[in-house]
């Protein structure tokens, strides 16, 4: 039998199941055992069966496509986040449509509006999103999950990282390692993650170094801003003995500034970041950081959205916070090379 124009009936016959079962498997509507799902997908792949998405959408009222609006598509954090979302989507027979909103609120609104009618649900990760933004740009009937957002709404589940707890735990580690003058390279003032990490730094300093002044220099999550911050910190009359950057990219830029100035890390100044992107393990010296399981964040977000799309699933909780750990490497006196010590976060009480 030729496989060029295989039909759903061909798949059902080869898999020895009904057409309805094949349809449920490929549409991700449930009601089929895992073993049957496996057999149907294997047969469909072997026969090179491609569903008629247009006809299927007319019948089911679904596009089997998920939209994701992210702050940017550049850098290791977002590529890893997309990977986690995509793997979870493909496991459910869903396609992924991705856009960015790095040029401001109008750009974010345009990205959301462009996906209306083309997706069954959306994942939205943008600093420009608030209740008014959602009311203006997102149809009430379109399911959506928000990532790292301050929005509190029963309509939209919110999935966040414990930014404050992770930042607090890293500052505590630096201080307990014998450092006192801990400086902080902040992220954008309008960014929710940056705001929470700033709060974590302040809380830990108030608890563990209450007699010392805060030392906060601006950044924007880019390597360039981390480099500029490093130069600024080295120009201070009393240099810090530790620097905590609000993300790893800024920490890497700061490390370059220190290297160019001949400053030894961690002997003279300890350094740490946030996110645990891949490069953190392989820069020299290797970077201590707060570990966010980025792909898991994407997977969890997609799973929450999939639950909203499934009428038989339990309604997700309105908010969920994912914990993170601190990873101690060379820049704060940890072990050599890419090896590391992981410690559970311990936010100040």
TrEMBL record:
<feature type="domain" description="HTH lacI-type">
    <location>
        <begin position="6"/>
        <end position="60"/>
    </location>
</feature>
<keyword id="KW-0238">DNA-binding</keyword>
<keyword id="KW-0678">Repressor</keyword>
<dbReference type="Pfam" id="PF00356">
    <property type="entry name" value="LacI"/>
</dbReference>
<dbReference type="InterPro" id="IPR010982">
    <property type="entry name" value="Lambda_DNA-bd_dom_sf"/>
</dbReference>
<dbReference type="Pfam" id="PF13377">
    <property type="entry name" value="Peripla_BP_3"/>
</dbReference>
<dbReference type="GO" id="GO:0003677">
    <property type="term" value="F:DNA binding"/>
</dbReference>
<dbReference type="InterPro" id="IPR046335">
    <property type="entry name" value="LacI/GalR-like_sensor"/>
</dbReference>
<keyword id="KW-0805">Transcription regulation</keyword>
<protein>
    <submittedName>
        <fullName>LacI family DNA-binding transcriptional regulator</fullName>
    </submittedName>
</protein>
<dbReference type="InterPro" id="IPR000843">
    <property type="entry name" value="HTH_LacI"/>
</dbReference>
<keyword id="KW-0804">Transcription</keyword>
<dbReference type="InterPro" id="IPR028082">
    <property type="entry name" value="Peripla_BP_I"/>
</dbReference>
């Amino acid at each position: 039998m030729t496989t060029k124009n295989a039909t759903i009936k061909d798949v059902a016959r080869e898999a020895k199941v009904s057409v309805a079962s094949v349809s449920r498997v490929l549409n991700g509507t449930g009601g089929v055992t895992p073993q049957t799902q496996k057999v149907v997908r294997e047969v469909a792949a072997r026969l090179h069966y491609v569903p008629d998405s247009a006809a299927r959408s007319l019948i089911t009222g679904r596009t089997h496509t998920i939209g994701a609006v992210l702050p940017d598509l550049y850098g290791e954090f977002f590529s890893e986040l997309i990977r986690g979302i995509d793997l979870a989507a493909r496991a459910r027979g869903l396609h992924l449509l991705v856009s960015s909103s790095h040029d401001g609120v109008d750009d974010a609104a345009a990205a959301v509006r462009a996906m209306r009618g083309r997706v069954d649900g959306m994942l939205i990760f943008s600093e420009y999103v608030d209740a008014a933004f959602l009311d203006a740009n997102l149809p009430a009937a379109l399911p959506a999950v928000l990532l790292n957002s301050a929005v509190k709404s029963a309509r939209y589940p919110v999935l966040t990282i414990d930014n404050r707890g992770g930042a607090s735990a890293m500052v505590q580690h630096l201080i307990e390692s014998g450092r006192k003058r801990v400086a902080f390279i902040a992220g954008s003032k309008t960014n929710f993650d940056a705001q929470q990490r700033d709060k974590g730094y302040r809380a830990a300093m108030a608890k563990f170094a209450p007699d010392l002044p805060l030392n906060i220099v601006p950044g924007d999550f880019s390597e360039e801003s981390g480099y500029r911050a490093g130069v600024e910190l080295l120009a201070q009359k009393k240099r810090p003995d530790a620097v905590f950057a609000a993300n790893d990219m800024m920490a890497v830029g700061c490390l370059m500034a220190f290297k160019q100035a001949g400053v030894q890390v961690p002997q003279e100044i300890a350094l740490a970041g946030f996110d645990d992107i891949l490069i953190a393990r392989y820069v020299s010296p290797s970077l201590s950081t707060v570990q966010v399981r980025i792909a898991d964040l994407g997977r969890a977000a997609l799973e929450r959205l999939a639950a909203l799309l499934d009428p038989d699933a339990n309604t997700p909780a309105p908010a969920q916070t994912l914990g993170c750990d601190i990873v101690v490497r060379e820049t704060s006196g940890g072990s050599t090379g890419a090896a590391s010590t992981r410690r559970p976060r311990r936010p100040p009480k």
